[in-house]
Amino acid sequence: MNKIKHPSKTLTVQEEGSGQRLDNYLSRVTKRQLPRSRIHHMIRSGEVRVNQGRCSASTKLTAGDRVRIPPFFAKEQQKHNPHPAIVAQFFKDIIYEDNSLLAINKPSGLACHGGSGISLGLIEHLRILRPQQKFLELAHRLDRDTSGIVLIAKKKSTLIALHTLFRDHEIDKRYLAIIEGKFRNSYQRINLPLSTKIHNNEKKAFIDKINGKESITEVFLLLRGNDYSLIEAHPLSGRTHQIRIHLSTIGHPILGDKKYNPTLTTKKLLLHAHRISFLHPLTNQTITLSSPIPKKFIMCAKKNHLKMFTNIDHRALLSTQQLVDMIESVRQ
């Protein structure tokens, strides 16, 4: 496949780029010809400069900033066809939509965006399936193997507003997870500072009590079995892999977690972003969205005899009907 050389250039950030993360800005101005891994490498190595200074991928740009982009080679863009299974499921997975945003139930195994050997992620599928939509951007991300609700902005103003809500911790996110062992407490607050490192080209979190950032996760026990427990996790901060490393550190790793669970009793990561609540950026009304419990949870429950679970704690914000349905399906 032919490669095209793009010369270095310095761009002035316009108003529509104000408030955008540097990595997202670079992806947009290079017309998504570069994988995320390459963009992040260019930033880390100092090849990319903002106002002649070094920067990070999460640097927020403002109108008037000068961004230097080094020379790069990019493959001629191919026309990608969305996976047929994703196309068939696409409209079923949208759980909310209005003129400014949409929420979609991302399946496990689908990355939020392409890069690092992944040609099409969730956002690329959306753009291909909705060519008439001029603006579609991820407001946040889930790990590739985590399923659940992802918010997509359909307007630049909505994207900026959602980023502000996430930054100020004004978006309430709840996750379901099946973890190893008997979780003894009905409620536990985990406060362990985290840092990240790159190992074998993969980002990994670790406990860092000296230089780590404050990271807090609330854990509610929903169901307890002999060998496994179902919990709801409420992250009060938004660190990389926060829930996964916190649960692993206290001795209750998530089933199927290839990074933080050495036993790996199942191939699927049993972590699901099942509920999100926030003030709508335009209407200022509270929106609470929930997504169905994935079949993989039900299948794992049956396989691991979770019908033995007891001690349901209704203080956790789990849909009562979802919980009843899950328990009934396990008992069948």
UniProtKB/TrEMBL annotation:
GO BP, sorted A to Z: enzyme-directed rRNA pseudouridine synthesis
Xref: SMART domains: S4
Record's keyword terms, sorted: Isomerase, RNA-binding, rRNA processing
Source organism superkingdom: Bacteria
Active-site residues annotated for this sequence: D143
Enzyme Commission number(s) from the entry: 5.4.99.-
Catalytic reaction annotation: a uridine in RNA = a pseudouridine in RNA; uridine(955/2504/2580) in 23S rRNA = pseudouridine(955/2504/2580) in 23S rRNA
EC class of the enzyme, as a word: isomerase
Family, as annotated: Belongs to the pseudouridine synthase RluA family.
UniProt name for this protein: Pseudouridine synthase
Record organism: Candidatus Ichthyocystis hellenicum
Gene designation per UniProt: rluC
